[in-house]
Amino acid sequence: MQITTKILFQSNYWYNDGLSKAQMHDMSGAITSLRRSLQYNRENIAARNLLGLVYYGRGEVAEGLVEWIISKNFRPTDNIANYYIAKVQENANELEAVNQAVKKYNQCLLYCQQDGDDLAVIQLKKVIVAHPTFLKAYQLLALLYLKTEQYAKARQILRTARKLDTTNEITLRYMHEMTQLKGKKIRETEVRGTAENAVSYKLGNETIIQPAPAKWRELVGQMWINIILGIVIGAATVWFLIVPAVNESQLDNANKQLLEYGELVAAQKAELSAQKKALDEYRASNGETEEVLTNAQNTADSYESLMQVSDQYDSADYSSATMADSLMAIHRDSLGTQGQALFDELTGNIYPDVCDTEFSTGESALSSGDYQTAIDAMNKVVTMNESYQDGEAIYNLGAAYFLNGDTTNANTRFQRVIELYPDTDVATKAQEGLNGNVNITNASSGSGNSSSNNSDSQDESSDNYDEDTE
Asked: CA 139 to CA 118: how far, in whole Å?
């Protein structure tokens, strides 16, 4: 008892920590704390509902719905999760807009993989307009802006992303990268400007800085105008002293530019590698988004259909066949414990009568040669109760397929009969069906028909069957 109390205390402690962080828009921290709370007590309804709200606040609607549906399974009544689910479902247009936004986001990931950055940027702008709280869309758009050196736009997008989740690791990392990339670009611009405006060279132990070659030639021209008498001496001085120094400085400048280009290429390669790694992480973490949304939608649809059939059954205004069709469309595995119990209760009350009716319909259709109707009817029987009539339903379904020309599906059913009911009469008939001889008995009339792969064997097997029946 003392251990249980400590576990519950720890669960409530982490719930309170998650609530505090959520109030400060620290969504990542809140998710971590609430998950830890649920590790101690998975039935902590308050923590699970708050976790759903935090996911919803970050634009991850599917994850939020999953948490609320789990919460509803633990406590079907007096649970605020019912209100949250109803609010999401009653606005079908908004839910569809969120679904489309997630699909467009996944398409943007493909664009990025195919170097279609421009298309990805255009699509992501539409995504954040349709789904303003979609944090991952903001982060991917900021990453693309960083790649194209649009730092002002990247800063604006990252600020919005940080408002949605103040301590998200990816957002903070992108902001840090943006600061470093922008500072590096400023330093490169300053160095490039200095190199363009001046020329430096060494003369002995002294470093001489002179204007760029274009300006130096202007000064030389003025010197020739002012010093007419020393033209010969000046020309000799320029030729033997100044020109070699200028050539050397130009060579140094060329070498510096090559080094700068090499550093720039290396930096770009490193940047592209980091961006590719980030995109790979996005693909890995978001590849399940659409699958989770689909599972959540299937769960919601299954519960809705189950409640509808339950109301129909209570009202007694609907036929068993109509209710059986609805039940066969429900995914039982997507329901919770109570949902599965209600599903089993309804099928136990509805399926037997429908199986009898459909089996009779299938037999009559086989006798009259309407094989497609027989396939449809026997398929329903096998779906509802595979062991109906100790394998006769499966055998009749295989026979209908065989007579309709679909030997692949026919052999599959015959083999199933042999697996489920070995050493029985129906297994013997199924083995004959695999050998190409099909015997059909109409339980209501006692008449027999037979079919085989060719007309001769068909007539022969029919006569044999009639003799056996007599």
From this structure: 16
Which DSSP category does 405 fall into?
T
User: Which residues in 258-374 belong to E strands, given as ranges?
Assistant: none
Q: What is the 3-state secondary structure (H, E, C) of 136-197?
A: HHHHHHHHHHHHCCCHHHHHHHHHHHHHHCCCCHHHHHHHHHHHHHHHHHHHHHHHHHHHHH
Q: In terms of Cα–Cα distance, which of 369, 441, 432 is closest to 405? A: 369
Among residues 340, 224, 435, which one has the least CA distance to residue 427? 435
Q: Is the dihedral of CA 29, 35, 39, 43 positive or negative?
A: positive
pLDDT in tens, 196-253: 444 454 445 455 555 545 444 555 556 667 667 667 666 666 566 665 665 666 777 7
**CATH topology of 2-90 equal to that of 300-469?**
yes
13, 17, 20, 26: CA torsion to nearest 10: -160
For domain 2-90, the CATH architecture is Alpha Horseshoe (1.25)
Grouping H, G, I as helix, E, B as strand and the rest as coil, residue 82 is: helix
Q: How far apart are CA 224 and CA 255, in angstroms?
A: 32
Nearest to 60 by CA among 129, 12, 131: 131
Q: Using the 8-state DSSP alphabet, how is residue 261 labeled?
A: H
Unique residue bearing structure tokens 């999401």: 88
Using CA atoms of 286, 291, 293, 298 in order, give the dihedral in degrees to the nearest 10: -170
> What six digits make up the tokens of 366?
């086989």
HSE-CB at 95 with a 13 A cutoff on CA atoms is 17
Contacts 24+ apart (CB under 8 A), 175-183: 177/146, 177/274, 178/146, 178/151, 178/154, 181/146, 181/149, 181/151, 181/271, 182/151
Which one of 170-179, 233-242, 345-354 scores highest in mean pLDDT? Answer: 345-354
Tell me how far the alpha carbon of residue 294 is from its chain's centroid: 9
What stretch of H or E contains 211? strand 206-211
300-469: CATH topology is 1.25.40
Check pLDDT > 70 for residue 408: yes
State pLDDT tens for residues 417-455: 999 999 999 999 999 999 988 877 543 333 334 444 433
Every domain of the chain and the residues it spans: 2-90, 195-278, 300-469
Residue type present at position 215: K
